[in-house]
Specification:
The structure holds two protein chains of two kinds. By secondary structure, chain A is mainly alpha-helical. Chain A is built from two helices and one strand. Chain A has one domain. The two termini of chain A are about 30 Å apart. Chain B is mostly helical. Chain B has a domain of about 250 residues. In chain B, strand 1 and strand 2 form a beta hairpin. The chains are: A mainly alpha, B mainly alpha. Chains A and B meet through helix 1, helix 2 and strand 1 of A and helix 6, helix 11, helix 16, helix 19 and strand 3 of B.
Chain lengths: ~80, ~550
Amino acid sequence: MTNYITRSVLIVLGLICIGLAAVDLYVARHSSLGFDSIPFFYCVLGFIAYAALIFMAKALRRVISRPENYYGLQAIDSESEAKHD
Amino acid sequence: MTNLVMPSLVYFAAACLAPLIPHARLRAVLLLGVPVLAAATFFSATYGTSHILPLFDTHLKIFRLDALSYVFALVFSLAAFLSLLYAAHIRDRLEQVSTLIYAGSAIGAVFAGDLVTLFVFWEGTAIASVFLIWSRRTEGSYATGLRYITAQIASGLLLLIGIVLFYHDTGSVAFERMTLDSTATWCIFIAFGIKCAFPLLHNWLQDSYPAATLTGTVTLSAFTTKLAVYALARGFAGTEYLIYIGAVMTLFPVFFAAIENNLRRVLSYSLNNQLGFMVVGVGIGTPLALDGTVAHAFAHVIYKSLLFMSVGAVLYRTGTDKASELGGLWKSMPLTMVLCIVGAMSISAFPLFSGFIAKSLIVSASEPYLWVWFALMIASVGVLEHAGIKIPFSMFFGHRSAADAPKVEEAPLHMIIAMSFAAGLCIAIGVWPENLYAILPYPVDYVPYTTAHVVTQLQLLFFAILAFALLMRFGLYPLEYRSINLEFDWLYRRFLPRLVSRLAMRVTHAWRSLAGRTTAIATRILSYSPPANSASTGTMVLWIAILLGIVLCLAYL
C-alpha cells in the first residue's frame, strides 16, 4: 500500500506545503476572527486535525468493529455482492 | 393563479405511461425527457406564481414559485436527469417508476405552499423511495427497506400531528417561517429532523443507502435529505438550536466514515456531514448563511451524485463496493477515476470546484460563533479525509497495484456521460460562481476568490494531504478489512430486541413456575378435603340456605 506514497510524491507534497507556508507570510487576512492571523494557523490546523482524526477513528474502531455478518440476514453487509442489478 | 402545469404532474403522468412502453431502450431514452419537460414548466415562470386549490372550507396553495423553491426544484430536476441517464441500462420498470414518483414528489413538496400539500408529497417521497431499496431484491435489502420506511413514516406521522395541532392553534396551514413555541411546531421540527438525519435520528441514512441498487443509491442521495434542508430553510431559518445540531452533524460522521469499509456507506456518512453544514447555515439564518445553505445544497446534490455514480460504476464492473476488496483500478477505469477525483475535489472544496464557492458562504457566516466555526474547519478536514482521499484512493490505488487488480472494462458509456455532465457542472459552478449566486434567494455580496481565502484553503487541504501521505508512509493509516461498525442503531437493532426477548422468556418462565406451584398447592389442599361425592345434596343445600340467611341479615342490619 505504501508503494504509492513514494519518496518523490512526498518530496513534491513537501515542496508544495513549504511554498504555501511561505506565501502565508505575505498574505494579509481580513477575517473577523483575529486568531487565525497567527502565522501558519491553517497549515497547523490542517495537519493536526487530520492526524488527530485518524488516530481517534482508529481508537473508535477498536471498540465498535464487528464481523460483517453481525446482523445476519437483517442487513446487506454479508450478502453476495453479485446480486446487485 | 396561472395555467402553469405543475411539474410534479409531469413526473406522475410519465410514471403511469412509462411501463406501457415495451421497448426498454426507447423507454430509457424517453424517460430522459421527463425532467427536461417538467423543468420547462417552471424554468422561465415569474416568482410569485401560485396555484390555489379550494378544499372544504379552506384553500390549499399547492404550487408556490419563489427564489427558494426555484433553486431546489432546479437542482432536483438536474438530479432526476442525471439519475435517469446513469440508470439508462436498467430494465426494471418498478425502479424506473419509483424514480419518477420519488423525483416528482420531491419537486411537488418543494413547491408546496401549505403544510397539507407538503405532507402529501412528503409521504410520496417516503413510499416511492423505499422501492429503490427493495429493487435490490435480497432478504437483507427487504429488512433494511422496512427499517427505512419505518423512519420515513414516523417522520410523516409527526408532521401530520404537527399540522393538525398547528391548524388547531393558528387556524392556518400556510407553510411559512415558524418558531419553536408550541407542541405543533416541535412535532414539525422533529419530522423535518428525521428526514434531515439529525444526530441520533440519522441511522436510517447510513443503513439504507448502501442497501439500494447501485442506480437507486444515486437517486436516493439527491432528494429526501435536501428536501428536509429546504423545509428547515423555509420553516425554521434562524432557529439557534440548528446551529449546534448542524455542528454536531458535521463532526461525528467523519470518524465513522474514516473506518467504514463499505464505500457507499462512507459516502452516506459524508452526506450526513454535508447536511450538517447546511443545517448550520439555516440555524444562523442571516441572508449570507441562507444563501450559503442553498448554494451548498445545489452544489452538493451534483457532486454527491457524481461520487455515488463513480462508486456505482466500480460496483457495476467489479461486483463490490468494499474498500477492502478494491484497489488498483486506475489502469482499467481511468475515466471513472478522473471523474471521481473531480467529485472528490469538489466536495473537499478545492478552489475552482463547486464546494469551494458554496461552503465558504456558510463558513464565513459562522464566524460570530467561534466554536461552530472551529467545528466546521475540522469537519472540512474530515470531508477531505473520507470523501476527498479515501473514496478515490481505495478504489483506484489502495492496497493493490494495477497488476493485481481484476481486469475490468471502463464504465458503460451512459454512465460516463452522466458522470461527465455532473463533473462539468462541478467545475463550471466553481469557475463561474456568479451564475449560481444570481439565483440564490438573497443578493450575494461575497467574493470567494480572494488571495487570502484561496491560500488559507489550500494550506488547510495540502497540509492535511501531507499528514495522510506521512501516515501512509509510516503504516499508520487504518487499513480496511471486512467488518461493520456498531452505531447508535445497535440499540434498536440488537439491544432492545434482545432485552425484550429475554424479558419475555423470564416472564414466561415465571408464569409457568407460578402456574405449576398453584396447581401443586391446589392438589395438596384437595387431597386433604373429603371426597366431593361424600357430601349429600341435602347438606349442600342446607349450607347454601344458611349462607343466604347470613347475607340477608347483614343486608338488613
